[in-house]
Amino acid sequence: MCGLVGVFTPRGRTAMAADVDSMLKVMRHRGPDGSGQWRSPDGRYHCGFTRLAIVDLSTGDQPILAADGRRVLVGNGEIYNYLELRQHPACRDYPWRTQGDMEPVLPLADAFGSDFVDHLNGMYGLALYDGASHALTLVRDRLGIKPLYWTRLDDGTVVFASEVKGLFASGLVVPEVEEAGVAAYLAHNWVPAPATLWRGVRKLAPGHMLTIDADGTIAERCYWRPHPAATVPGDFDQAVEEMTALLDDSVRLQLRADVPLGALLSGGLDSGLVVALAARRLDRPLNTYTVRFEGAAYDETPLAAQVARRYGTHHQVFTLTMAEVADHLPMLAWYCDEPLADASLLPNQMISQVLGHEVRVVLNGTGGDELFAGYGRYFQLPVEARYLELPRALRRGAIEPLMRWVSPMQAWRLSRGEKFVTDGGGYLHDHCTLFPPPILDLIGCGLPRPPPAQAAVFAAYGGDSQSAALAADLSTYLPEDLLLLLDRSTMAASVEGRVPFLDHRLVEAALAVPAGIRTRGGRQKALERAMAARLLPADVLEAPKRGFASPAAMWMRGELGNLARAILTSETALRRGWWTRQGIDRLAAAPGRHAHRLYALLMLELTIRLHGEQRHQAPPSLGLRDLAA
Fold it and tell me: Are 104 and 112 in contact (CB under 8 A)?
């Protein structure tokens, strides 16, 4: 788990001198254990690496040069099956220089060209340079667990980095806001790949590979997308056995580390399954961590304690106070680079800060909901189903027009129900967005609304509607929200977050499971509950899904709400023209309904100020009070 940067200048152009030292320094949190650089003899390729040492502590430094000197590799993340790859026929006689997980990429690239990526199991952002042909290949892992950003300058030079702030630190890229990115953020709560908030800055989409040849020609291809495995489980019991075996093998691979390792343990199925399978494979007690924080609607620690006792883990419970929320948010916005409306970022980052004193690797259950249908949006809401029983002419011609006069938001909620059948991707989007058309009108936002990112994936999937919905979330919400949050919150504390549910073999197998098996009896995560039946306590199996949410409403009823309002109604913010003073006042007057919307707008504003205007090169020490003054 590390950070990588680089600059590639095509032949025939003057080599661009990037400040690689500053690029690495601004991402030092991603790799405090060392750094390295490599520059081609002609100066047209210069890459750098900052290391968080997890595997092969003594010889795993990067960049890695191939034995014949032709290729140079920098890679962020982990290739979990590296031991198996070292025994592959293409690698067996390779003169290894390291004992680490990244070096197998070099002989695999010699043997298979760009198809080397098909052999990798892991999370990664890779930059592979071919000195003989002067070509660069950038690769992002299948599920988008690790980030990779790039931009092309006017002369064709390509600059890349693991974080956007690394591009800005190069001295070659000026941060400018792209208004289309703002519209995308308001529509989705995040900016869908390949776009970002920043003009000219692109993020490589999950499962994509970018190649730049010697004359600067860029070609991008998708080498993997969520799809069902070729074989389909014959019945429920077979599905339980196959899915459990795949998850267990994923846990086996992801326990590989040469540093202290632990697992986040909530009261839910996902983290409970990961802990159960991991604890059974270790010859020592697994370190597990549960968090409770002030203002939460429930306390999951008793359920987590049952799992910890069952598996004899070394269990710790942390209580996080939210008294200093106003002091933490600017720092979080700096670490994120991109605005993220998910208010659970703050508690997750605070958890990671605590874990950073205990472990270097932490397993968690991210991805279980997207594989086994754990969200309510994968099912038609009962109130929507009842409403759709009315004649369409009555609904569209009378009820909804009348409701638009009484409550535009309620009219919109009624109208979206029909999309469950006619526009599954749009239905997903409508059940996630914080800023549907009635709310945009409320705040006075006139930006054009982009099409839902989920819709294109859903339409292209071609399978049953539930599996298409899972694939849509796996391609959009998961990498753009949950995995971005995981990467930034853990890396800010120099901790590697691992996600066993997102082994691509398990993803493909889960998508091959028919909906009638996956959610037997119409129950969310029915299959996963059966997988956990022999592994977890009954109380955990039957507990309702709650998720990990922040007490945003409580925050916004207190000082944070006043500070958010002051910042969002400042002359600086209003000058952008994306909302009005009256609009923000309307949100602030009802924090119970609009707390997450205020938070989302605040994080957008902070991101623009810290990176686009003030251009901080280190985590800011100022708090919201300073920005509101």
Answer: no
Q: How many whole angstroms separate alpha carbon 204 and alpha carbon 141? A: 10
**The pLDDT of residue 544:** 79
Catalytic residue among 2, 47, 336, 432: 2
pLDDT tops 70 at residue 30: yes
pLDDT band at residue 549, thresholds of 50, 70 and 90? low
Containing 592, the helix (H) or strand (E) segment is helix 591-607
Q: What are phi and psi of 220, to 5 degrees?
A: -125, 135
Task: Kindly report, residue by residue over 555-589, the tens digit of the pLDDT.
Answer: 898 889 999 999 999 999 999 999 999 999 999 99
CA–CA separation, 596 vs 489, rounded Å?
19
> Nearest to residue 602, comparing CAs of 345, 349, 341, 347?
341
CA–CA–CA angle 8, 13, 16 (5° rounding): 50
Q: Is 349 within 8 Å of 335 (Cβ atoms)?
A: yes
| Residue 60: pLDDT over 70 | yes
Residue 201, strand partner residues? 151
Q: Which residues contact 38 (CB under 8 A, 6 or more apart)?
A: 46, 47, 48, 63, 65, 72
CA gap 106, 214 in Å, rounded: 20
**Are 475 and 457 contacting, i.e. CB atoms less than 8 angstroms apart?**
yes
């507990």: which residue's tokens? Answer: 543
Give the closest residue to 484 by CA, choosing from 586, 581, 348. 348
Peptide bond just before 551 cis, omega within 30 deg? no
| Spatial distance between the Cα atoms of 333 and 464, rounded to a whole number of angstroms | 38
Let me know if 629 is exposed, middle or buried by CB neighbors in 10 A (0-12, 13-18, 19+). exposed
* Torsion angle in degrees (nearest 10) through CA of 56, 60, 61, 64: -170
Look up residue 126 and give its two tokens.
């890779």
pLDDT value of residue 548: 60
The one-letter amino acid code at 208 reads H
DSSP 150-191: EEE-TTS-EEEESSHHHHHTTSS----B-HHHHHHHHHHSS-
Burial of 401 (0-12, 13-18, 19+ CB in 10 A): exposed
Task: Tell me the residue length of the chain.
Answer: 629
User: Rounded to an integer, what distance in angstroms lies between the CA atom of residue 526 and that of residue 365?
Assistant: 17
Q: Which residues pair with 485 in a beta bridge?
A: none
551-579 exposure pattern, b = at least 16 Cβ within 10 A, e = fewer: bbbbbbeeebbebbbbbbbeeebbeeebb
Q: How many C-beta atoms surround the C-beta of residue 422 within 10 A?
A: 8
Query: Has 432 been annotated as catalytic?
Result: no
Tell me the CA end-to-end span of the chain in Å, nearest whole number: 38
Q: Cα–Cα distance between 602 and 202 in angstroms, integer?
A: 23
